[in-house]
Amino acid sequence: MADLGERTLDKAFVMRGLTKTYGEGRTAVHALRGVDLEIGRGEIDVLLGPSGSGKSTFLNILGGLDTATSGEAWFGDQCLTEMNDRQLTLYRRNHVGFVFQFYNLMPSLTARENVELVTEIAESPMEADEALHLVGLGKRLDHFPAQLSGGEQQRVAIARAVAKQPDVLFCDEPTGALDSTTGRAVLRVLQDVNERLGTTVLIITHAAATAAMADRVIHFADGAIREVVINEKRLAAEEIEW
Amino acid sequence: MVSPLHAKLARDLWRIKGQALAIMLVIGIGVALQVMMTGFVASLSQTRDAYYERHQFAQIFAPVARAPEYVVNQLREIPGVGAVQSRISGMALIDIPTRDIPVSAQILSLPTHGMRHLNEIRLTAGRKPEAGKSAEIVLLDSFATAHNIVPGDQIKVTLNGARRTFDVVGTAQSPEFIYYAAPGEMIPDDARFGVIWIGRPALAAALDLEGAFNEALLTLLRGAVEEAVLEEVDRVLAPYGAPGAYGLDDHPSDRFLSEEIAGLEISATNVPPVFMLVAAFLLYIVTSRTIQSEREEIGLMKAFGYTDREVSGHYVQLVVIIALAGALFGCLLGVVLGRITVPVYTTYYKLPFLLFRLELSSFTSGILTSVFVATLGGAFALRRVFKLMPAEAMRPAAPPDFSKAGNVGSNMMRLLDQPSRMVVRRLFRQPWRMLGAVAGIGAGMALSLSMLIIYEGFDTVLDRTFNVIDRSDAAVSFTHSAPIKTLLELERLPGVTQAEPVRNVAVVLRNGRRSHAGAVTGLSPDAELYRALDTNVAPIRLPDKGIVLSKPLANLLQVGIGDPVLVDIREGSQLAVTTRVAGIAESLIGSPAYMDLAALNRLMTEPQRVSGAYIAIKDGAEAQVYAALKDMPIVAGVSLRREAVQAFEEVMNQGAGFSRFVMGFMAFAITFGIIYNVARVAQDERARDLASLRVMGFFRGETAFVLLGELGVVTLVALPLGVFLGSGLTNLIAAGFSTDLYQIPVVYAPKAYGIAVAVVVGAAMASGWLVWRDLGRSDITLALKTRE
């Protein structure tokens, strides 16, 4: 295993034979059926596939939110599949940012405070104001979520995710609750973060068009990777046909 | 076929089973208490009434020093009087071989055999004495049982200074002695006080009362005015040395029983509503939470065409099922508790039988109240269902607006980290809701605190009465008032270290229309063994003029220090003298009045007389002293402090006082139930926030802080409120427990507060732990996918 660890240093993630089974016996659901994959540092990868194809499970395991049934997942030289709850928490705290479909902001905190929630505990965060400027919300720092539009809320969520300067950004349907214009703006922000900070970005989406902005498009079906498509040319977010 | 809504209902109930169970328990306890108490009110009062009627219990009791038999005819002529019967009553000492000291007993005459008479005894074994057989007696059943005496046994009795042997031919109960205690004591002890019935000629001969009587029993005709009859009886008997006739209300046995029934009746109306209100509050919390989390389903049902009424009906069913289950459980529990409690009552109330009666009305009212209260609690929450439009309901709820609460203390906020700000803002955003939680926890704590203070109160009664007021080892009462030099005889007994005089005189104290029939206790001004205490528990030096009244007595007569009181002496001199209130004394048992012994004797125009003594005995010399007392003809009775304390403790811990432990347990359970519900609902409402924090890399403990910090603040704020409410509630409960026979003092003991705080903090910590444990179990990714 140490061998594999050394060979993964130039990759963000390396996975070997990753499986996840929920339940037992006849009622068992095989969410992942042995996934092998390597993800390079600084890539934008888009995960496509129908509901139940395993992409969310895959993202949850890489994000340290869930454990695998068997197989290995490496983040640099750290083996995620061998971490306990505390180690997984530290991994999420120091290396990972999440963006969700329903934003998941703390309604009782302002935009700035929502970001500070993370910068207070991260190892080497950027200023909260800077993160919010990065997503174009420099003028709405002291607004509460209830005073922001859906797109603005999602941008706060992104600012909150990137403020810790994570190595990886996981986005589960980040534009799912947004209209096309707002959705494009949100993708633009993700692209900016990737370019400026060199953050690896993994995006789950149902909107196949989003794939055009990715370095690689990973197609999931029945708990396995069906196909990995490498884009010769990445489109800018605003060029995407919705 | 089970409709999908019914299936949903069943699953919803299963999902909230913990909370539903807690609410069912609260409702159940409330209903159980009601069923039990109303059942006992009915059982006790119906049994009492039937017993009184069947055994012709008198309604007026007229003691007299000695009246010729023909006076009975004068009494019969008083308008409103039904039956009249004379009898002879006296005190005796029974010598029980196994006991060091003799046992005092009341001895009563039985009319000639075969005559139907008032206060008819109920034979439990054997027979009545036969005419002409002067050595045959009937013994009080409970006393005989306590000493293993059965018909056929013989006992030695000292009567009017002469010791004789009697044949026990029967044992009996009587409506006169349903509740009884030795004279001057409040707590019954079967072994220490006896009643003897004997043929009248034999008793008349022994007490020199041939052709005379010393007590008249009367019944009233329907519509007669008791007050008027009492006045007439007093007038007729005045020439014969009558201390004053009294009605059933002042009869010790009936008074205790009636006080008990009245207390139960008050509790039955006051206590269950407290539980119902708590239940309504909890149901409101649970229903509103359920509705909030099911916005989408509600929207969907409405979109499918379900009417508001059908949708509400669905949630009302949830609430009503919980309420009904609770109420039915309560009915069952009430019956079981009632059946279990019957022996507690029959230990202290000597009724011929006591069946726990089921009051059907308490069942129906218990069930209807529960359903009504539950629906009310639910209805408040359901108002939202009507407001919700289907389309709106199916969209995710907008984030709650904190912009107003966010401005609260914005300078202070800068000092706090983000999780703390979340805690503070949530508290301020919905202050009413938080105050509701604070009020709920405060109310629970108040209930616990008041029960704890009441416990302390019982201990204080014991301590004050037996360690501070009465510090003697034994109280000796004489058969009649004796010269003060009799005390010298007592002091000379080997083993007696101290003897102090006491004189009890029957009086009626009057202030205008207010009056109290009782006794004045004459003591030495510098008494040490038995003292009057002021309200600060410091001994009062009895002044040589005036009277010192106990607080309940002063309240009853509505007099204060310096006010005049008419002392109507009902024995000896029979004078009526006005004197002034010289002091107010603390008293927890009875309503005593005190005077300087010399001053009292002056009123009586009988200098240097005493009616008994308090004595102190050297350690280890008890047996010797009792043996000597047994042989003194002047001694009518000896009451040992040690035995009185024991009897008191027994009643408090096993008997009637046991209910305070049950109440205490229920108070603790409710406190925990409220706090747990508050914690659980907060957790439900914030599941997504908490999961988000976990995703961001907050540890379980840090996440729990956001949730439990809120519970902590609410609990902290609730503590002073609980102290405040509890102190007030204690006064109410103490007043409810107290009668003019005894008072439960409200003692704000630090210990009670300490325990109450510990109960609340402990419940908060236990709830916190349960929530914290669940945080570890819950799937954080699931919470993120669902939308509020």
How does the SSE layout of this entry go?
The complex is a heterodimer of chains A (242) and B (788).
Chain A: H1 2-7, E1 11-22, E2 29-40, E3 44-48, H2 55-62, E4 70-75, E5 78-79, H3 85-95, E6 96-100, H4 111-119, H5 128-134, H6 150-162, E7 168-172, H7 180-197, E8 200-204, E9 216-221, E10 224-230
Parallel strand pairs in A: 3-8, 3-9, 6-7, 7-8
Antiparallel strand pairs in A: 1-2, 1-4, 4-5, 9-10
Helix pairs in contact in A: 4-5, 4-6, 5-6, 6-7
Chain B: H1 4-15, H2 17-54, E1 60-68, H3 71-76, E2 81-87, E3 89-95, E4 103-110, E5 122-126, E6 136-140, H4 141-146, E7 154-159, E8 162-173, E9 193-199, H5 200-206, E10 212-220, H6 226-237, E11 246-247, H7 252-293, H8 295-304, H9 308-348, H10 360-387, H11 390-394, H12 410-413, H13 418-429, H14 431-469, E12 474-483, H15 486-492, E13 496-511, E14 514-523, E15 533-534, E16 547-550, H16 551-557, E17 564-569, E18 576-586, E19 593-596, H17 597-604, E20 609-617, H18 622-630, E21 635-640, H19 641-653, H20 659-685, H21 687-695, H22 700-737, H23 750-777, H24 780-785
Parallel strand pairs in B: 4-9, 6-8, 14-19, 16-18
Antiparallel strand pairs in B: 1-10, 1-11, 2-10, 3-4, 3-7, 5-8, 6-9, 7-8, 12-20, 12-21, 13-14, 13-17, 13-20, 15-18, 16-19, 17-18
- The overall pLDDT of chain A, averaged over residues, is 87
CATH class of chain A: Alpha Beta
Largest sheet of chain A: 6 strands, mixed
Strands of chain B, count: 21
